[in-house]
């Protein structure tokens, strides 16, 4: 049994994401998830093609982001990686071992290493339990405390770690603000000393200033505890601020995967380009050089043939309708799934965002950095308000 200690053991080292010699901490191999399709009397329910043959690897110590519009399958993908949802096809490998079909005691042991921070801090905490019970439950489940007093001590340490007062252990979730509740959720995720945490839109329900506090807290904890983070998000400012690499999803498929600076400075896939141009401008008088993304996301019950983006792509050609593009790996590991991405680049489609469009993104990033500096100066002052 491990002592009540919040410094993760030496088996949790952080490594630079550029050093990909070691076995990935988590890997998706042709992961596919379909919902529905069950027969009911004389009909079948529609089949939802949520995730389609997605493959990528996440390396120890990096922050890997999965970004896309609502309904693109990114949350489903995150839950499949954690084995909270079973895959229809494909495999999930954790530290090189296939965990796709683990059950029972093996899966329960895995839960200690892999945790999730949920999107809604108001719905993800049991209103009938005190904060001490919420955080202490995984401590007891994983055998990390030999007595009630040791469990309470560990809860106090975890609350302090996320910038909250230990006395809050006696209170109930309804007594806290949204930002404080999300900190409680983070403390609960840390209780088992995980190696990998998936954040499923962890700040989307919070206002910008509170978002900045929570994001900077996650970055600080990652550095201190040697965590690997997978951030599921649609907010591009959050992604740019804290990610090492980004996977862009569209209608259940990854269309581009790149280092964060590469992706934002020179996006290759037409969908990535449109997504970045959709960042709101700071003023209604500012104009974009090109239109933002047009039309609605097609239904996942009837995804378009060929390239799934062809119904909204300004560069679509007949081949895009007929043939699904395979993901092409470029020098440096960058990936893009588009038949004509080189033509788009030659036409100037991948040039960086113009200043008038990226101003709003830069404003958000400035807020995050300002809060980061404030947090470093006074670690828990705002968290306990």
Give short descriptive properties of this protein:
385 residues, alpha/beta, Rossmann fold, 8-stranded mixed sheet, 4-stranded antiparallel sheet, 12 helices, disordered N terminus, ATP-binding
What report would you give on this structure?
It is a single chain. This protein is an alpha/beta fold and 385 residues long. The protein has a domain at 60-74 and 103-246: Rossmann fold. It contains twelve helices and 14 strands. It has helices at residues 74-81, 104-113, 131-141, 148-161, 178-190, 208-225, 236-242, 260-265, 270-277, 318-322, 341-346, 355-377, and strands at 26-36, 39-40, 43-44, 47-58, 63-67, 89-94, 97-98, 114-117, 196-200, 228-233, 245-250, 253-259, 328-329, 335-336. The strands form three sheets. The protein has an eight-stranded mixed sheet, sandwiched between helices. Strand 13 and strand 14 (335-336) form a beta hairpin. The longest helix has 23 residues, at 355-377.
Short characterization:
By secondary structure, this protein is of the alpha/beta class. It is built from 12 helices and 14 strands.
């Amino acid at each position: 049994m491990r002592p009540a200690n919040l410094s993760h053991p030496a088996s949790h080292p952080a490594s630079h994401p550029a050093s990909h010699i070691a076995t990935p901490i988590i890997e998706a191999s042709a992961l596919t998830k379909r919902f529905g399709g069950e027969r009911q009397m004389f009909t079948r329910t529609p089949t939802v093609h949520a995730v389609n043959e997605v493959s990528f690897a996440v390396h120890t110590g990096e922050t890997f982001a999965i970004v896309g519009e609502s309904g693109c399958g990114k949350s489903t993908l995150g839950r499949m990686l954690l084995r909270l949802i079973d895959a229809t096809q494909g495999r999930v490998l954790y530290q090189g071992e296939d965990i796709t079909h683990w059950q029972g005691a093996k899966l329960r042991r895995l839960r200690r290493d892999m945790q999730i921070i949920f999107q809604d801090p108001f719905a993800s905490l049991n209103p009938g339990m005190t904060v001490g019970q919420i955080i202490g439950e995984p401590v007891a489940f994983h055998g990390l405390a030999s007595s009630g007093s040791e469990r309470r001590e560990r809860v106090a340490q975890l609350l302090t770690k996320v910038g909250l007062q230990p006395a809050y252990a006696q209170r109930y979730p309804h007594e806290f603000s949204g930002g404080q509740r999300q900190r409680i959720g983070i403390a609960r995720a840390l209780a088992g000393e995980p190696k990998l945490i998936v954040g499923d839109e962890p700040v989307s329900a919070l206002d910008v200033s509170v978002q900045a506090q929570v994001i900077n807290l996650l970055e600080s904890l990652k550095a201190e505890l040697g965590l690997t983070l997978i951030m599921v998000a649609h907010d591009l400012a959050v992604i740019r601020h804290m990610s090492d690499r980004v996977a862009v999803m569209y209608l259940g498929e990854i269309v581009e995967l790149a280092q964060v600076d590469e992706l934002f400075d020179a996006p290759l896939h037409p969908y990535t380009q449109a997504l970045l141009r959709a960042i709101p401008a700071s003023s209604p008088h500012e104009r974009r050089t090109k239109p933002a993304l047009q039309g609605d996301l097609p239904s996942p019950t009837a995804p378009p043939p060929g390239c799934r983006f062809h119904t909204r792509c300004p560069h679509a050609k007949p081949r895009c309708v007929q043939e699904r593009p395979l993901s092409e790996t470029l020098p440096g590991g960058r990936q893009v799934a588009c038949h004509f991405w080189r033509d788009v680049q030659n036409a100037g489609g991948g040039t960086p965002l113009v200043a008038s469009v990226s101003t709003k993104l830069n404003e958000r990033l400035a807020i995050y950095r300002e809060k980061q500096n404030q947090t470093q100066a006074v670690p828990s002052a705002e968290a306990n308000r």
